[in-house]
Amino acid sequence: MKMAIFQVRTWLSRRFSSVSSHPLQVCVVGSGPAGFYTAEKMLKAHQGAQVDIIDRLPTPFGLVRSGVAPDHPETKIVVNQFSRAAQHERCSFFGNVTLGSSLSLAELRELYHVVVLAYGAESDRVLGIPGEDLIGIHSAREFVWWYNGHPDCKNLDLELKNTDTAVILGQGNVALDVARILLRPATELATTDIASHALAALEESSIRKVYLVGRRGPVQAACTAKELREVLGIKDLYIQIQEADLLKTPKDEEEIKNNRIQRRVYELLSKAATTGHSYPRSGQRELHFVFFRKPDIFLDSDERRGHVSGVHFEKTVLKDVGGGKRVAVGTGQFDDLQCGMVLKSIGYKSVPVVGLPFDHQKGVVPNIRGRVLHNTSEDPTLLEEGLYVCGWLKRGPTGIIATNLYCAEETVASILEDLDKGVLATKSFSPKPGREGLLHLLDNRNVRVVPFNGWEKIDSTERRVGSLKNKPREKLATWEELLKAATE
Fold first, then answer.
1. Which of 2, 5, 6, 264 is exposed most, by the fewest CB atoms within 10 A?
2. Binding-site residues, please?
3. Is the pLDDT of residue 435 over 60?
4. Binding residues for FAD
5. Per-residue confidence (pLDDT) for residue 1, from 0 to 100
């Protein structure tokens, strides 16, 4: 262990030989898009900044690696840009370092002038309805991590062979990703970077019907046209949409008129409802869009106690709540949908760490343009000096990868303003331990650090094994495999 830390130090000392003796020490927590965009912008904006990125995983890139669907390789090209940032002479990456257990937030703030928290949202919102803990019910995040080879979810116990029907709660892009992976022929996924354990399970899957269920109507569907077009384009797939659900109210017409994306989504759904066959052929896979339903109870199976057997839904209508906003409210009418698996795509949730102000209701860190506030009062005079946020932790789990670019620009602008105004002046001109202090602390705690060249070894192994299977890479999906490959 000591030797591993020594090797990391030796490698880094060569890279940072040209850095000034008292640089501005910046630590970014989280190596997803928000973290890397922050590091990139900081390096470019402040020539005296030394930026360290830490992540609890041995692998960088966050949701680009573990969230983007395997059949969307073009979305992952951004890792080339992030890799260039990690290889910058004033930047370093330290994987397998967990904020909260490897070291505390208070310790990190002592080591660095500036700490930017960009670790995203690694938990899930809950519905809080009866039966939510039944076997066969999972979050969409867990399913996505499972098929993307995230080491926390390799052993996820999915009911793929015990049922032919899955219900997905939600109609956003993540929900559509999940539906597409369940319904696409496994032969088409075999040449992607999907995890091998997921491919093997999907090849044996009995799932033939997928229901995408939303609280609101087709006009309010939260997906984008690109994602919808992709799932509708799966070959030999039966699509079912109730034409009654497609009837628009004057308020719907107004929404569509003012939103090009919603209009395009509605047009695609309408076209899908009126083309194709009236009934599925025998053995044909089916995708059903169900609107105006909210889950009320998850049903327990009579044959397999403790397993989900269906969802009891309440029908909904849209109600005006002022300000041009409408919400789905229950009508008191109910119906059931039988299934053996439920995937909840109702939103990710950020998790706080000790010493971090947190708005539990909104699921974000209270902040003004990335500056962390003492509490949720939004009093701009109560700032946590030197502490900033970016990404989902800052604004909530919304947007696409590029959204984090603008988010990072705003946070970095706040850091630079604080430096110019002297808010950080006393700290920025006094030495901080930074990287050396971080490595010393982790060394004393026997934390096995994975630097960027360790990730490059993982990357090389995955690509080499993948090429033998006609895949871009074969992901290492356990902690043991990842840590071993990082040191070979």
1. 2
2. 34, 63, 99, 171-174, 215-216, 227, 392, 399-401
3. yes
4. 34, 63, 99, 392, 399-401
5. 46
Nearest to 184 by CA among 205, 153, 163, 211: 205
Task: Output the pLDDT for position 375.
Answer: 79
**Euclidean distance between the first and final Cα of the chain, in Å?**
14
Phi-psi group of 350: left, alpha or beta (phi > 0 → left; psi -120 to 50 → alpha; rest → beta): beta
CA distance 427 to 114: 9
- pTM across the whole model: 0.91
pLDDT of residue 398: 87
Instruction: Dump pLDDT digits (tens) for 23-39.
Output: 899 999 999 999 999 99
What are residue 289's DSSP bridge partners? Answer: 212, 241
Rounded distance between C-alpha atoms, residue 224 and residue 72, angstroms: 15
User: Phi and psi (nearest 5°) for 125?
Assistant: -70, 150
Residue-wise burial string across 191-202, b where 16 or more C-beta atoms lie within 10 A, e elsewhere: ebbbbbbbbebb
Annotated binding site for NADP(+): 171-174, 215-216, 227, 399
